[in-house]
Amino acid sequence: MPTPALLSTMTLLSAPLLPPLAQNVPQGRSILMIFIILMLMALVVAGAIFVFSYGKLWLQAMTSNAPVSPLTLVFMSLRQVSPRTIVDARIQAMQAGVSADSKGISTKKLEAHYLAGGNVPRVISAIIAAHRADIDLDFDRAAAIDLAGRDVLDAVKTSVYPKVIDCPDPEKSPRTTLSAVAKNGVEVKVRARVTVRTNLKQLIGGATEETIIARVGEGIITAIGSAKDEFEVVENPDRISKAVLDRGLDAQTAFEIVSIDIADIDIGENIGARLQVDQAEADTRKAQALAEKRRANAIAHEQEMKAEVALKRGDVLLAEADVPRAMAEAFRGGRLVIQDPDASGVK
């Protein structure tokens, strides 16, 4: 316990300090009140800005059972993400009955796909269409298909409603029919229609429609080429379809071939006969060329023989010219005696 002397001493020491403290208490309270007022004003301004910018969007998300926190909306704008696009996508999925947990639809994934340049509304529409058609398609696969440059919504629609591809495609080929030749050499012109549906599992990295058209065209030409004649093809056009389908032409493609239908068959020209005529004409020209060669050789040989005859005739003339000279030499040498049959002697 402090003594009375000590208490009196402490009272005397603290007496000069009481007036300043008494003066500082109202000043501290005023600063605190100003700070509180400024904070309240800042909160009111921030609230007004939020209500003006995001109030309607936030309320729409809350009432649609797709809540998004206010800070998330603000951070989306700071990350240059369209809050309207993300919220509308969440609301669209929720109202369509698509479970965000089962399909992997989260706000972060939606923002990441938006920042990657993807089409968020189209991806959500594709997921909803796949969900209604009972097709297994989650957000990650749909986003990958979209970022790969494929139309994911069109792919889902093609899976539900198969589309028909003309073979050959008149928009990409100047020819309207496929031309093949049977074993007997007769040309058969065929136009086919291929019904395909999208294979979502192989859409990324799978071959496109051009590959399907090329493979089907090759298969049709092979099937016609293995036929004995054109009548076999015309009588049983389904054998072409079966032969092509059995080859599994949709392997490693983004589509699954449902059916191949022969829309039109026409008989062309007899290419085999034309080739035989062309071959005969070629053989004739070849024989004529050989005959002309032999004739030219015979003419040349004839001219050589004529020259040889002229040469020999010259040799004969030279020999005949030597006879009088030899006779003269014989007379001069007395080796030649002429006998007169009328005379009795020899001269």
Short description:
By secondary structure, the chain is an alpha+beta fold. 63% of the residues lie in helices and 11% in strands.
Descriptive overview:
With 347 residues, this protein is an alpha+beta fold. Among the domains are: 70-160, no CATH class; 163-274, Tetrahydropterin Synthase, Chain A (2-Layer Sandwich). The protein is 63% helix and 11% strand. It is built from 13 helices and 4 strands. A hairpin with a 4-residue loop joins strand 2 and strand 3 (186-198). Mean pLDDT is 80; it is low at 1-25. It comes from Pseudobythopirellula maris. It holds the Pfam family FloA. Belongs to the flotillin-like FloA family.
Largest sheet: 4 strands, antiparallel
How would you name the CATH homologous superfamily of the domain at 163-274?
Answer: Band 7 domain
CA(first)-CA(last) distance: 212 Å
- Report Rg: 55 Å
CATH-derived architecture of the domain at 163-274? 2-Layer Sandwich
Secondary-structure class: alpha+beta
Can you tell me the CATH topology of the domain at 163-274? Tetrahydropterin Synthase, Chain A
Oligomer classification: single chain
Total of DSSP H or I helical runs spanning 4+ residues? 13
| Unreliably modeled segments | 1-25
User: So what's the overall shape?
Assistant: elongated
Number of strands: 4
Binned, the helix content reads 55-70%
Compressed to H and E, one letter per element, the order equals: HHHHHHHHHEEEHHHEH
Approximate strand percentage: 5-15%
Average pLDDT reading: 80
In the CATH scheme, the class of the domain at 163-274 would be Alpha Beta
